[in-house]
């Protein structure tokens, strides 16, 4: 819309880069040894510059959150600095809701329940995240709600929906791998490469493909007129084709809305209609199901 752009991020794109039109990175490391990381950041900067030109923005757009390089799905950008600060404040106060879909290495035997809450704190050591021993000793509180949507009858694989209540680095990946003992498929850092190789052998999908998708994001927007100026805007990003392919090969059926995507205002689907006052509309391509 006039203030927000939501992308359906592909795998492999680093969601931090240079401020559009400046060539100045958000992370300054002039002596980086990771040439591929620099290239990835440059690629994201190119995306931002392209959006700025396409939508005739004087500045921006500005990332207000990030997704891991391998994670796909909805990534939100603000068109102005004012809105970037407003959305960042919603993130800080946990007013923004996010859901993820993931394929995890584990079947019905690995789950003692079909839903639950993980409250293990996390700590970081040389870039690798682990379960924290005790909050306050280098650990930070981390909360993840989860529910199983389907178990595969062809392999030890399950489709789960995740609701992060905090936003720490690698939170979902570590909570799945180390708390529930069901690592996300394709997670080469915290997961089981052998099991992933066996499952993906017939799918022609890279074994390093992380099957974690930022499915939806919801946040507050405001109308200029009317009795209810504040409304809840939810954006659902369609699942990637390879995610759907693996699900179907394994007998798992994602929810229809997760496949098609869409925009919702106060919980009501708006299709391709324009959202009054903010001028928002769905620009996604139809997904073949």
UniProtKB/TrEMBL annotation:
InterPro entries membership: PsdUridine_synth_cat_dom_sf, PsdUridine_synth_RluA-like_CS, PsdUridine_synth_RsuA/RluA, RluA_PseudoU_synthase
Superkingdom of this protein's organism: Eukaryota
Record-linked CDD domains: PseudoU_synth_RluA_like
PROSITE patterns in the record: PSI_RLU (PS01129)
Gene Ontology molecular functions: pseudouridine synthase activity; RNA binding
Family as reported in the entry's similarity comment: Belongs to the pseudouridine synthase RluA family.
Name used for this protein in its record: Pseudouridine synthase
Domain annotation Pseudouridine synthase RsuA/RluA-like: ranges: 4-178
Pfam families per record: PseudoU_synth_2 (PF00849)
Source species: Lactarius akahatsu
GO BP: enzyme-directed rRNA pseudouridine synthesis
């Amino acid at each position: 819309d006039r203030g927000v752009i939501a992308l359906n991020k592909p795998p492999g794109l680093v969601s931090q880069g240079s401020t559009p039109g400046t060539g100045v990175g958000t992370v300054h490391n002039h002596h980086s040894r990771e040439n591929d990381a620099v290239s990835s950041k440059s690629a994201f900067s190119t995306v931002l510059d392209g959006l700025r030109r396409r939508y005739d923005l004087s500045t921006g757009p500005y990332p207000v959150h990030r997704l891991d390089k391998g994670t796909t799905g909805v990534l939100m950008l603000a068109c102005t600095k004012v809105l970037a600060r407003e959305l960042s404040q919603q993130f800080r106060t946990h007013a923004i809701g996010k859901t993820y879909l993931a394929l995890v290495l584990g079947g019905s035997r690995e789950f003692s329940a079909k839903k639950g809450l993980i409250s293990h704190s996390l700590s970081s050591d040389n870039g690798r995240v682990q379960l924290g021993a005790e909050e306050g000793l280098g650990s930070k509180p981390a909360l993840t709600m989860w529910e199983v949507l389907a178990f595969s009858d062809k392999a030890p694989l399950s489709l789960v929906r995740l609701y992060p209540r905090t936003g720490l680095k690698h939170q979902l990946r570590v909570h799945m791998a180390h708390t529930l003992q069901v690592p996300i498929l394709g997670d080469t850092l915290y997961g089981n490469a052998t099991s992933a190789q066996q499952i993906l052998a017939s799918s022609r999908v890279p074994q390093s493909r992380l099957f974690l998708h930022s499915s939806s994001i919801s946040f507050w927007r405001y109308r200029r007129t009317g009795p209810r100026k504040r409304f809840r805007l939810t954006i659902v990003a369609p699942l990637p084709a390879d995610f759907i392919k693996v699900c179907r090969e394994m007998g798992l059926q994602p929810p229809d809305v997760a496949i098609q995507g869409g925009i919702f205002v106060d919980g009501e689907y708006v299709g391709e209609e324009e959202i009054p006052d903010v001028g928002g509309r769905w620009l996604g391509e139809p997904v073949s199901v």
